[in-house]
Design brief:
The structure holds 2 protein chains of 2 kinds. By secondary structure, chain A is mainly β. Chain A has no helices and 11 strands. In chain A, the strands form 2 sheets. In chain A, strands 2, 4, 5, 9, 10 and 11 form a 6-stranded mixed sheet that branches. In chain A, strands 1-3-8-7-6 form a 5-stranded antiparallel sheet, with no helix packed on it. The chains are: A mainly beta, B mainly beta.
């Protein structure tokens, strides 16, 4: 089944805290898992991505943790800043390798 | 390096009309995909083109169509517009698929 489930729907974090967003998928043929960040009035921007042969990938304050057996992956934003306030989408690339299946999104608000 | 350019940014159309949206990918990118974004359904894949050929198509009615030109620029067309077609239409490009860079989208309102 082509589906990616994302939680929570919204998240409020204090400045300097850790933001955690979770996603789960069902199709074991998915082979690429990106996270996108979207600000109002803009298109989604690629943040970080991981392939299923890697359990963790870190880029600056952003880390993806990937659990292949559980079919889950998560985004951790360390030292969250007000500028991180945006909507975050997880996604998985489909079997054809040409389409992204997106989660429903998480609206993150970082309070100062 | 210029990003993905979508035109127009905003569009208002009447039910029953048709509309054409344009997308210029990043130079050197041969894969162009289209997505529909709505508050209720989120981001949904419409179709993907590579070297002027449609490689993949999402679960949308035949009123939604697209094409890609030899310079990789792409257009999507929606015929017989319905109120439910109101959405942000996003174009994304990549070198060959995956790792897509999105444009800012075209906001279509159907009245």
């Amino acid at each position: 089944q082509q589906q990616v489930k994302q939680s929570p729907q919204s998240l409020i974090v204090q400045k300097g805290g850790i933001s955690i967003i979770n996603c789960a998928y069902e199709n074991t043929a998915f082979d690429y898992f990106p996270w996108y960040q979207q600000f109002p009035g803009k298109g989604p921007a690629l943040l970080i991505a991981i392939r299923p042969d890697v359990s963790e990938k870190k880029e600056g304050r952003f880390t993806i943790s990937f659990n292949k057996s559980a079919k889950q992956f998560s985004l951790h934003i360390m030292d969250s800043q007000p500028g991180d306030s945006a909507t975050y989408f997880c996604a998985a690339r489909d079997q054809a390798g040409t389409a992204l299946i997106f989660g429903k999104g998480t609206t993150l608000s970082v309070s100062s | 390096k210029a990003g993905v350019t979508q035109t127009p940014r905003y569009l208002i159309k009447t039910r029953g009309q048709q509309v054409t949206l344009s997308c210029s990918p990043i130079s050197g990118h041969r894969s162009v995909s289209w997505y529909q974004q709505t508050p209720g359904q989120g981001l949904q894949f419409l179709f993907e083109y590579f070297s002027e050929t449609q490689r993949n198509k999402g679960n949308f009615p035949g009123r939604f169509s697209g094409r890609q030109f030899s310079n990789s620029r792409s257009e999507m067309n929606v015929s017989t517009l319905e109120l439910g077609d109101s959405a942000l239409y996003l174009c994304a490009s990549s070198v060959s698929g995956g790792g897509y860079t999105f444009g800012s989208g075209t906001r279509l309102t159907v009245v």
